[in-house]
Specification:
single chain; 140 residues; alpha+beta; 4-stranded mixed beta sheet; 4 helices; 33% helix; globular
């Protein structure tokens, strides 16, 4: 689990982990609990028996209504492949597995809030910008 929690953030901060907002164990426990109860799904890529990448999926239920299908939407997050394994097929395999799952379970689609740096990657993977999605940032 340590791989999933630390790998993405270290790269976002140029190899220097940011100051933790919570103990690593608390983040690992959060991930374990949600994977165990099925609220979140995850796929991992391995090379030589070691995890080299992962992607997580959260199913966003939609309010049912009698006039149309209201299948869930999949929220994609924490998609990461170690730099040493990039451009070797691991990342593509992760997204392909995620897409196959989404299609076989009838998800309406997949959404992601990409960083500026990851937007070109998601575009290469056929994710398209949405015009109708709106956000209200909250200052907490």
């Amino acid at each position: 689990m340590d791989f999933a929690v630390q790998s993405v953030k270290e790269e976002d901060h140029e190899g220097r982990p940011p100051t933790p907002a919570r103990p690593l164990e608390a983040a690992e426990r959060w991930i374990r609990d949600r994977l165990r109860d099925g609220r979140w799904l995850a796929w991992v890529a391995e090379t030589e028996g070691e995890i080299c990448g992962h992607v997580f999926l959260y199913l966003v239920e939609r309010m049912p209504e009698p006039y149309e299908d209201n299948n869930p939407v999949g929220y994609v997050t924490n998609y990461f492949v170690l730099p040493s394994q990039r451009n070797k097929g691991a990342g593509s395999a992760l997204i392909e597995a995620l897409k196959q799952h989404a299609c076989s379970t009838g998800l309406e689609g997949l959404i992601v809030w990409p960083s500026e740096r990851s937007t070109p990657l998601y575009r290469r993977l056929s994710f398209q910008p949405l015009d109708e999605l709106l956000e209200l940032p909250l200052d907490i």
